[in-house]
Specification:
Shape: elongated
Number of strands: 14
Length: 661
C-alpha cells in the first residue's frame, strides 16, 4: 500500500515538472515574440486587457480662450510605450462574412455625361455623410463606458451635444447560418496563433475619448463570434441593398464651433516641433530597413541646394532642397507591401468618382505600381491597409442607427486576421502601417484601433478629430467628375478676365455657411449662392474659372473639395475653416498661394480680399498654376503628381518619426 502511494507521488511529481517545463517554454516564446506567441493569450483568455503605461495623451481644454490647447503644443513621444497585439483581449473579436450575394450589382461611381459637367453643378458635398449623423464625432467607447446595468446606453453630453446611441443594429440580427456563417458563443472560441486587437485596448492619441473599463462593453451581452467558413474576412450583411448614390439622412449634423482655434502660424510652429520631438514606437527588433530610413533622414536633413530643377518652384515649398532630396530617395528606396487579405467592396475596391475619389485613385494606382510595391513583406518599409472608408460606410452603416459600431468592428476583425498571420504589426505597434481614407468618419473609425498608424485623412481636423502632426498626413479631397478623364475642364481664365472678386456656392452644411451667406449673399461685388440647382443660369465651374478668389468654406467637417477645385480651375483658394490642416502641409508653403481667413473674421472678408495688392494677387495666382501639377490625378502617374505627393507625404512622415539608430 505504502509503495503504491510512493509510486503515485513520484509520478505526480514528474508530471508537475513536465508541466512546469512546458509552461516555461511558452513564456520564453512569449518573451522573445516568436511568430506563434499568440498561443499564451489564447490559453489565458480570461486575462484583463493590458493598457500601456506612460500614455501622455490629454484632452482638449474646455476653455474658450482661442489659444492653442496644451495637448496641441506638447508633442509627446511613445518610443517606449506600446500595446503588444498579443497582450490584448480577444473579447471584442468578431469575424464577419457575407456570401457575396447582393454585392455584385453594387452601383459604384456612375459616370456623368458631358452635359452634366457644363450644367449648373450642385454642391458636390451633398452626398457627404458626416460623423455628426451619429450626434457626435467622439468615439463609441465614450458611450459604451456609460452603459447602464440593464444593458441600455445612458445619454451623456459634452460640448453641448447629445451623445446617445442606439444599441440595436439590424445588421447584427440579419446574420444566420443560412448565410454561410458559423456561430459560436464568445466564451467557447479561442483562436490559436492569433493576436486579436480590441478597439478599447489601443493607446489614444490627442483628444482621444475615455477608454471603457469593461472590455466586453463593445459587444452586446449575447454577441457571438462569427467565423467565416472559408477562413477569409467577409462582410456584415446589411439590411438594405448598398448604393453609392443613396441619400443621406435628413438631419442636422452640424458641429458647434471648435473650442480652440489654431492659426496657420501656430500650425507652422507645431509642425516644426513635431519633426524634432515626435517619435514612433521603437521597433521591437531591428531591421536593415530601419537603417535605410535612418540614413535617408540624414541625407534629407543635409540636402544640397537645388540649382538644376526647373520643374520645381522654390516659393511653393517650405524647403525645396529637402523635398527634392526626399523625393529622389523615395524613388530609389521605398518598398510598400499591400496586404492581400480582405474582400471587395470594402477592401481592394476603388471608387474613382465623387468627393471621396482620392482614396480610390490612390488604391488603384498603387496596386498597379511596380516601382514601389513589393510582394515580399520582409522587404517593405511601409505596409498599406487597402480599405475604402467610403465603402465601409456604404456597405455596413445601418440607416438611422446613429452608430458606426459595425464599421469599427469590421476593421478590428480585419486587423485580427492581419496580426494573426503576419508579425510586422507587432514589430512597430503599427507605426510602419498606413491607410488612405477620405470619408468624414475615417478619423473616428481608426482613432483607436489604428491609432499609431500613419493616417492619410481628408478630414484633417487638428482639434476635434485628433489629427497629429508627425504621425498623420493631410489627404487632398478631390472631386472627380469623370473617372475616364479626371483632368477634364482643367484650367481657367487669365487674371485680366477674372472679373468676379470672389465666388462661393454650396448647401448650408454646418454652422459656418449660413453665417457666410447671411453676411455676403447680396453683396454686388461677391457672387455667393446657396445650393445651386442641377440646371440653371449660374454655372459652378464657369464661375470658378472667372473668379479671382474661390471661397473654400467648411461644411460639416473642416475639409472641402473646393480647396483642390480652386487650384484645378486656377483660382486663388480662400480657406475659411479653423483648425484645417491643408494637404501636403509638411512640404508645401500654403501661404504663398492661398489665403487663410479665420471664421471669426467672416464679417471682414471683403475688406481682407480687397486689401490684398494686385501684385500680390498676381503672384499668388501664378503660383496656383504652378502648384496645380501636384494636385492632378493622371490615369498613369506622372512625376510629382498627386499620387506621388500622397506617397511622398507618407514616406516623409515615416522617415522623420523614427528614433535615431
Amino acid at each position: 500500500m505504502i509503495k503504491s502511494w510512493i509510486s503515485a507521488f513520484v509520478e505526480t511529481r514528474r508530471l508537475i515538472w513536465l508541466l512546469g517545463i512546458v509552461f516555461a517554454v511558452v513564456l520564453l516564446i512569449q518573451h522573445f515574440e516568436i511568430p506563434y506567441s499568440g498561443v499564451l493569450p489564447s490559453l489565458l483568455a480570461a486575462g484583463k486587457p493590458h493598457v500601456a503605461s506612460g500614455d501622455n495623451s490629454s484632452h482638449v481644454s474646455s476653455s474658450t480662450d482661442p489659444k492653442v490647447p496644451k495637448n496641441l503644443t506638447s508633442n509627446w513621444s511613445d518610443a517606449n510605450s506600446y500595446v503588444s497585439v498579443n497582450e490584448v483581449t480577444t473579447g471584442s473579436a468578431v469575424l464577419d462574412r457575407q456570401d457575396g450575394e447582393g454585392v455584385k450589382n453594387l452601383s459604384v461611381g456612375q459616370s456623368q455625361s458631358s452635359d452634366n459637367l457644363t450644367a449648373g453643378v450642385s454642391d458636390p458635398e451633398d452626398e457627404n455623410i458626416s460623423s455628426d449623423t451619429l450626434g457626435s464625432s467622439d468615439s463609441l467607447a465614450t458611450d459604451e463606458a456609460n452603459k447602464s446595468k440593464d444593458g441600455k446606453i445612458a445619454s451623456s453630453s459634452a460640448n453641448g451635444r447629445d451623445y446617445s446611441l442606439n444599441r440595436s443594429s439590424k445588421a447584427d440580427t440579419d446574420l444566420s447560418p443560412e448565410n454561410g456563417i458559423s456561430k459560436f458563443p464568445i466564451s467557447s472560441v479561442a483562436a490559436p496563433n492569433s493576436a486579436m486587437i480590441s478597439p478599447e485596448n489601443v493607446d489614444m492619441h490627442l483628444n482621444g475619448p475615455a477608454t471603457p473599463a469593461n472590455p466586453s462593453s463593445w459587444l452586446d451581452g449575447n454577441a457571438t463570434i462569427l467565423l467565416p467558413q472559408n477562413n477569409t474576412i467577409g462582410l456584415l450583411k446589411p439590411n438594405v441593398a448598398p448604393s453609392i448614390n443613396k441619400v443621406p439622412m435628413k438631419k442636422d449634423r452640424s458641429k458647434p464651433p471648435p473650442l480652440a482655434v489654431v492659426t496657420i502660424s501656430q500650425m507652422n510652429d507645431m509642425l516644426m516641433q513635431s519633426r524634432a520631438s515626435y517619435r514612433a514606437m521603437r521597433p521591437r527588433w531591428s531591421s536593415t530597413l530601419d537603417q535605410q530610413l535612418s540614413r535617408a533622414k540624414s541625407l534629407i536633413e543635409n540636402a544640397p541646394p537645388v540649382r538644376d530643377e526647373p520643374s520645381l518652384y522654390s516659393t511653393l515649398f517650405r524647403n525645396v532642397s529637402m523635398f527634392r532630396r526626399s523625393y529622389e530617395l523615395m524613388e530609389k528606396t521605398l518598398q510598400v507591401y499591400i496586404y492581400p487579405e480582405g474582400e471587395s467592396p470594402i477592401f481592394h475596391h476603388a471608387v474613382l468618382e465623387g468627393i471621396y475619389a482620392s482614396e480610390g485613385w490612390f488604391m488603384k494606382l498603387l496596386k498597379a505600381n511596380k516601382m514601389f510595391v513589393t510582394k515580399k513583406p520582409t522587404q517593405a518599409h511601409l505596409f498599406y491597409l487597402p480599405f475604402s472608408s467610403r465603402m465601409l460606410e456604404e456597405v455596413l452603416y445601418v440607416p438611422d442607427s446613429h452608430s458606426w459600431r459595425n464599421l469599427v468592428r469590421h476593421l478590428s476583425n480585419y486587423l485580427n486576421v492581419i496580426t494573426s498571420k503576419y508579425r510586422f504589426w507587432n514589430r512597430t505597434g503599427g507605426a510602419d502601417h498606413f491607410l488612405v481614407a477620405c470619408h468624414d468618419w475615417a478619423p473616428s473609425e481608426t482613432q483607436k484601433i489604428m491609432a499609431k498608424c500613419i493616417r492619410a485623412l481628408c478630414n484633417s481636423d487638428l482639434v476635434d478629430e485628433g489629427f497629429t502632426f508627425g504621425k498623420d498626413v493631410s489627404l487632398p479631397e478631390t472631386y472627380v467628375r469623370m473617372a475616364k478623364d479626371p483632368l477634364r475642364e482643367r484650367g481657367g481664365k487669365p487674371p485680366s478676365k477674372r472679373h468676379i472678386l470672389a465666388f462661393f456656392a454650396g448647401g448650408n452644411h454646418g454652422y459656418l455657411r449660413p453665417i457666410l451667406l447671411e453676411y455676403w449673399k447680396n453683396d454686388p461685388d461677391l457672387k455667393f449662392f446657396g445650393k445651386l440647382p442641377t440646371k440653371g443660369k449660374i454655372n459652378y465651374v464657369r464661375h470658378m474659372k472667372s473668379s479671382k478668389y474661390c471661397i473654400c468654406a467648411k461644411g460639416y467637417e473642416v475639409n472641402s473639395p473646393r480647396v483642390v477645385e480652386a487650384i484645378f480651375y486656377e483660382c486663388v483658394p480662400v480657406i475659411i475653416s479653423d483648425n484645417f490642416v491643408p494637404p501636403f502641409y509638411e512640404t508645401l508653403n500654403w501661404e504663398s498661394f492661398a489665403v487663410f481667413v479665420l471664421e471669426k473674421d467672416i464679417p471682414n472678408l471683403k475688406d481682407i480680399l480687397k486689401s490684398i495688392p494686385e501684385k500680390r494677387y498676381l503672384a499668388m495666382q501664378r503660383r496656383v498654376k504652378q502648384v496645380q501639377r501636384h494636385f492632378l490625378w493622371n490615369t498613369k502617374p506622372v512625376k510629382y503628381d498627386i499620387f506621388h505627393m500622397i506617397l511622398h507625404s507618407i514616406w516623409y512622415t515615416r522617415v522623420f518619426q523614427l528614433s535615431p539608430i
